[in-house]
Amino acid sequence: MSFRDTILQNVRNNQPSSRELPAIPKFHSEQPVDLKKQFTAALKELYGEVVTEPPADFEEFLRKRYPHAKTICSAAPEYTGNRVPQDFTRWSDASIIDVTIVRSPLGVAETGSVLLSEEEFRVNTIGFLAHDIVILLDPAEIVENLHDAYGHPHFLDKAYSLLMSGPSGSADIGGITVHPAQGVMTLTVIFWPRAQSKTTQTV
Amino acid sequence: MSVVDQAENAAEFISDRTHEQHLDQLLWMLRTRRDEAASRVQEWEQLRDLASQIKEHTLSNLAHYLEMFESRAKANGVTVHWAQDAHEHNQIVYQLLSDRKADELIKSKSMLTEECDTRRFLEERGIRVTETDLGERIQQLDDQPPSHIVGPAWHKTTQDIANVFAKAYGSDKEKADPVYLAHVMRENTRPLIERARVGMTGANFAVAETGAIVTVTNEGNADLSGNVPELRICSVGLEKMIPRNEDLAVFIRLLTRSATGNSITQYTSHFRAPRQNGEMHIILVDNGRSSRLGMEKFWPSLKCIRCAACMNTCPVYRRSGGLSYGSTYMGPIGIIMMPTFDIRRYSELPFSSTLNGSCTNVCPVKINIHEQIYAWREVMEKKHQINLVKKSAMIVAGKVLSNPTLYRMAGDTMEASLKVLPRFAIYNQLNAWGRHRDIPQPAKETFHDWYKKHRSQATGQETNP
């Protein structure tokens, strides 16, 4: 008998009598929820920042916010940086990126999370090895809670899906979150409706 | 191996007041934050019920869900391995590395690999292993196991960590500043991550419906370990199964709130298939879990989602530190899990509890932890795993506590003695309570005396003894 079969046989012999699997409610609030406000507050708790309108001049916005940034990799159709994810055939090379720009298809108000996957990143490491990340999110795509979020098809068909809820940090020294850890140093979400896409620009 | 004497080990930790107070205050802060977070979620208790029911359903149909998970993972292009014990697990990991002539491994925090002692196994065979979680790395550099399942180095002060990094990395030991130390970690670990060919993670959950494994981290180090190298190895305990993708919402809502009071961690990551041009291997590990599943009183401990809320609330754990348990899992959950690994070695652990029930009250999956602790004491007694001193003391206590007259006599004698005995006679070697704190001042009268007096006045009747 293989290890697999032995383990499964032991499990079958020992598992207790079957219990019911419960249905899970959606737990939507009975009161109207300001999803943008709740999202912003939740993300702030984990040290992420929200910009509530698309900047009039995105180029200028980036220059002011990241004055030392030289390598800007955009995976979002709204902006053309000086790198695209496909440039990084060796995924670890994404560590030269100063700022990554990507669009998320879903925000979660309860936790301030944005959903990202290989469909958005193209090369997943641009989301962690970059110094900073800017995520475009259509506020109409914010859902109330994680029960709604797990209805997104990404979780069923993408190789890698990530709920990202702030810059990489650690509470391993003294229980209080500090930055940096191994991933991005800052995370900024811009509420940017898909319909209002800006003309692409090049740095 | 010899029996772990948690009380004796704790005495060393307690002898240094700084560390005892540091840990107690830190963990109580987390416990308070947990309460605040839970109170903000109206359906909190309903979520706990659901989590418990989902886990009980899964464990009672575990073979079915393991097979479902395996078949979905394989369909996703993942190679699935099965390991009966720690040695088999470690051997599989080593084989995967040696087949590819890899001599370095980066890994994110995994209690299962601690349980299997994977790092030591690999290092003995020439593999350089780098922990990428900050707390785990601190413990690796200090050659200590984790003392807490969420914050492996929480028993250390910032100065302790500055000393560890100064020795390992040559950083400034005078700068006991968490932000500076976080930078030191990043500068020294990122280059190792960037050149890694093999990465390893554990799993917080394994979803049978999708074949995905889910990790929860603040640092994103599971994402780095799982995405930068082309070979990704995931070690998964059998009990990590959950049936449906939608079940994740229940557990993710509970997990971090219970652990630290935050609503979620920065990275909740779902690995369903290998990355582009990569390989993904999942090792499903039994290591005693299938046997525990058959233990009538103790199988519910397999519901644990490793939030550590039970540790943060436990007065014994908070004051004695996790290393005192001499085991992979520590605190209340460790007390009920470790005897299933080695009943002799961990026979004393179930006595490291006040049985106050707080662990059960905060457990997000409603494990009856304090009842299991008591049940383990009964097992130890039946299997003659209790030492003679403890057994004799319990026989005497049992006689006194079961006889009201004897109990009151003992109380009166103790009270009278405390009033007249000199300090050295009270605080002797036999008085474990008084080793680190003062005995409370004797009350002017006992509750029984007070009750007898007042009840008699109220009713004009003598009360029964």
Task: Write up what this structure looks like.
The complex is a heterodimer of chains A (203) and B (465). By secondary structure, chain A is α/β, with parallel strands linked by helices. Chain A is 21% helix and 19% strand. Chain A is built from six helices and nine strands, in the order H-H-E-H-E-E-E-E-H-E-E-H-H-E-E. Chain A has helices at 3-14, 35-45, 58-65, 118-121, 146-149, 154-157, and strands at residues 49-51, 72-74, 99-104, 107-108, 113-117, 132-137, 142-143, 160-164, 186-191. In chain A, the strands form two sheets. In chain A, strands 1-9-6-3-2 form a five-stranded parallel beta sheet, with helices on one face. Chain A starts with a helix and ends in a 12-residue tail after the last strand. Mean pLDDT of chain A is 95; it is low at 199-203. Chain B folds into three domains: 1-35 and 297-386, Fumarate Reductase Iron-sulfur Protein, Chain B, domain 2 (Orthogonal Bundle), CATH 1.10.1060; 41-287, 3-Layer(aba) Sandwich (Rossmann fold); 390-459, no CATH class. Chain B is an alpha/beta fold. In chain B, strand 5 and strand 6 form a beta hairpin. Chain B is globular, with a radius of gyration of 25 Å. Chain B has helices at 6-14, 17-39, 44-60, 62-75, 86-99, 111-115, 118-123, 134-141, 158-169, 178-195, 221-227, 247-259, 289-293, 309-313, 315-320, 331-341, 358-362, 369-382, 388-401, 404-420, 423-426, 447-459; strands at residues 79-83, 104-107, 128-131, 198-201, 205-207, 212-217, 231-237, 241-242, 267-271, 279-285. Helices cover 52% and strands 10% of the residues of chain B. In chain B, helix 9 crosses helix 10 (178-195). At the A-B interface, helix 1, helix 5 and strand 8 of A face helix 2, helix 3, helix 4, helix 8 and helix 10 of B. Strand 8 of chain A pairs antiparallel with strand 9 of chain B.
